[in-house]
Protein 1
Amino acid sequence: MTDERITSLRATAHPLRLRMLSLLTGSAMSAAEVARELDISHANASYHLRQLLDADLVVVEGEERIRGGVAKRYRYPVDRPEPDPSDNDLSAQVEAMCSELLRRFQLRQPGKGNFTDAELWVTPEIWQQALDLVTRGSMLIHEQAQRPRTKGTIPVNLTVAGFRMEKP
């Protein structure tokens, strides 16, 4: 595994960085904007954005002059293919996702949603159909993501873990 790939996978194994990637899906933002939205310090936001940039998970979409300095605007390019993680890296990512899901669950609104937990046996064809639908839904929500608090939008969560299992 290359050093770049290891850096990329490790960068996503942090709940705060997962939140940043989600945030930067909807629009490019500066470290100060990310800090305000996530209620963290500017220095903390800058540090984690640099980690994501070094891991090639975000891009600098532009720069703007602010009070005599230059602020970079970062964006998460959702159309970029992601590397296949090792089992150790994937375990760390799943742990970060679980932690983040628990945080988001506390923010849920009562009402309609979808909660599914299933360990089932299906044909390979049905599995592929289900996986294709979930992938399409994930791409739709990422492609249509808006800047936080845009008028007419609502905050939502979509956490998906679909995978084939070994036969017992």
Protein 2
Amino acid sequence: MAFSLWLSLAAVCAAGAISPGPSLALVLRHTLGGGRGPGVVAGLFHALGVGLYALLTVLGLGAVMARFPLAFEAITVAGAGYLAWLGFKALRAGRAAALSPGVAYTTRRQAAREGVLVALANPKLILFFVALLSQFVHPEMSAAARMIIVATAMSIDAGWYVLVAVALSQSGVLEWLRLRAQWINRATGVILIGLALRVAWGLVA
């Protein structure tokens, strides 16, 4: 892969990673609830989910979606349901935090599970990779070049969210966030439920 093409790929992946959304909200919530460890774990496992979609894309995900649209519609529905469930959990955590701001709401295991599942449940990621990342793939591309695409997408996603978790876990910042935990959890819940509703609306519209 030419270096100029890789730079374009990296720019596209970076733009997708840093855009605000449920992934950022999730890393924020786990950092708030458990500190640096769960926040970093959430970011790393989110990158694993991103890497899976990147791998499927370089293997021909777009063609599979065209051939089996009902299967991907079912995946989208399940993903929307999971995002909505996480949103309600965050709203409930927000109410609890109003009474006890210092309570830890998350573990590394929970962060790992939710990190990868939020990536897999986010239909925006499917569309992102099929519509944009697939532009860098052509039938004659070597296996090594395809793996570079997958590794680039994973590395940039992991690097960004780990950086976010580390920055937010600084003692002064984390204490400031925990004092406002109820509002952060509620905002996270609204974001996740809003995305789930948007996905559901897109299916019936």
Protein 3
Amino acid sequence: MIRDITLGQYYPGNSYVHKLDPRVKIMATLLYIVSLFVVDDFLGFAVAFVGLAVVIAVSKVPLKFILRGLKPVFLIISFTFIINMFMIKGEVLVSLGFLTITREGLRTAVFMAVRLVLLIIGSSLLTLTTKPISLTDGIEALLSPFKKIGLPAHELAMMMTIALRFIPTLLEETDKIMKAQQARGADFESGNIIRRAKALVPILVPLFISAFRIAQDLAMAMEARCYGGDIKRTRMNGMKLRSGDFVASAIFIVFIGLIILERIML
């Protein structure tokens, strides 16, 4: 299950989505996430789903690879669904002793589960179609106007990108540690949830040690290459908006407009 997490991974490709300017993709992702919390009916979620499906098709990232990233958060989605279904009051549909399922609760539970699924897939597409260095440059460019008030745009962009980039690395380290523990007789799969959680405690110490080692190696490598933050830093490939970026931005503006219009009309 650890290897199923796709957040932070980059899927190599040469699609139209891969070639888009990272600034366009970052802003589109943020606006898409906001739009998911704006819609509150089946039609709005249908529009959001169709838009996401089109982007996935154009990106040429295998759907199976994208859906694999939902496995690790399936328990969270299920828990959210159950909590909303039983805790919201309204017209009772089913009564199970002290637990009741209401029409409003069921509707909210379905919407919340769909919202989380679309949010996770939409966020994953950003990292799957954008190289880490391009993502750093895009975030820095979007934060650069705030430099006037003392915001360290480059440092923040670098930290965010490194955090995303090293999610797969740390997950791989966790998988190695778990396999080493299992080879020594550790059991992570039997027993109830509490017992499984306790079995994971011995993994934390070597994982933290490994994380600090990776961080130290990265810091030494950056220092050996005379990395000095944003001081006199140049780029091999500068970012420049092309015609395809303007077309994608126009299409996305129309998409967001449809969601807002649907919300206003209904």
